[in-house]
Amino acid sequence: MAPKPYRQGMTLQMSTSTMDPEYAERCRRSLAEEQAASLAATGDWAHVDKDRVHRDWHELYGEVAAAITAGAQPEDEAIQELVGRHYAITSRFYIPSRDAYLGMALLYAEDDAMRDWHNSYHPKMVEFFSAAMLRYAGARL
What is the pTM of this model? Predict the structure, then answer.
């Protein structure tokens, strides 16, 4: 299946730091609104095995950290497959729209606790994985 072309407001070179401010705000809003609706509809995600999710994310981020160390690039197909796994894990809570998923990339970069936690796997994790998420969302969501 050929990847979908990038959509309005997205470029191959886009990063969380170069995203159009209005589009970035739309993504932040989408994340907040979709998460709030899902939390309300599911009793605070009662259906999710949160311990399993965190184990799966831990394993995934370890693989991403190793790939970064080995010289991988965010657009590499192997990395995009890892991002696909991340999206699938995230989708255990709710299925985020493209904009909400980009909002998650922004959250990882902008929230101190999220940035520190992700960067504990590798000092460049947030920068690298956010770029990979942007690429994935633009091409596949």
Answer: 0.86
User: CA 85 to CA 87: how far, in whole Å?
Assistant: 5
Tell me whether residue 127 is in a domain: yes
Domain that holds residue 55: 24-37+49-140
Q: Over the stretch 62-83, which tens digit does the pLDDT of each residue have? A: 999 999 999 999 999 999 999 9
Q: Which long-range contacts (CB under 8 A, 24 or more apart) does 65-71 make?
A: 65/121, 65/122, 65/125, 68/122, 68/124, 68/125, 68/128, 69/122
Residue 103's CATH number: 1.10.490
pLDDT score at 126: 95
Quick check: 8 pLDDT over 60? no
Cβ contacts of 114 within 8 Å, gap of 6 or more: 107, 108, 126
Domain membership flag for residue 42: no
